[in-house]
Amino acid sequence: MRTLWSSLVVGALLIAGCDRGDHPGHIGSTAHQFVVSDGSRTVDLSKLRGHTVVLNLWATWCAPCIEELPSLLEMQRRLPQVTVVAISMDEDESTYQRFLAQNHVNLVTLRDPSQRINALYGTVQIPETYVIDSKGILRRKFVSAQNWTSPEIIDYLKKL
């Protein structure tokens, strides 16, 4: 009996340890559609069909977000066929705009201070990034800062 109980506890711990949210149940299903506008730009995810989309949820005050930003910008430069859409949860527009200018952020980015997109995707920790294929299917989720120029990620995105 003791062996059975120990096996159950170890099995539960292994299952919990493997489910950190980076393999959500909706992988392989249609990505949640949204339209977001911040007054100067509007992005309608459904209009990006035909393109691989890297949906990055971030904020200017998030250290891991800032850490991964240079590699995200470089990946976008190397893979123009991939559309990066960065949705910031920043509340203060002037801080956000100043950050974009100071860091030469030249990818599609919008502010969503209501965090509607974060809620739609179930994001609780930023940065969180979703890869959506050209057919609008959610293919991958990355939690925390990534090196977007790593050979593995570049090859993966090229194959989509």
Characteristics:
alpha/beta; 7 strands; two-stranded antiparallel ribbon; Glutaredoxin; 22% strand; single chain; 5 helices; 5-stranded mixed beta sheet; 160 residues
Mean pLDDT: 87
Query: Which structural category do the helix and sheet elements fall into?
Result: alpha/beta
CATH class call: Alpha Beta
Helix content: 25-40%
What is the CATH superfamily?
Glutaredoxin
From N to C, what is the helix and strand string? HEEEHEHEHEEH
The count of strands amounts to 7
Q: What is the count of structural domains?
A: 1
Strand content: 15-25%
Uncertain regions: pLDDT < 50 for 5+ in a row? Answer: 4-23
Whole-angstrom Rg? 18 Å
Cα shape: globular
Report the total helices. 5
CATH architecture tag? 3-Layer(aba) Sandwich
Query: Which strand order spans the largest sheet, edge to edge or round the barrel?
Result: 5-4-3-6-7
| Annotated CATH topology | Glutaredoxin
Distance between the termini: 50 Å
- How would a crystallographer describe the biggest sheet? 5 strands, mixed
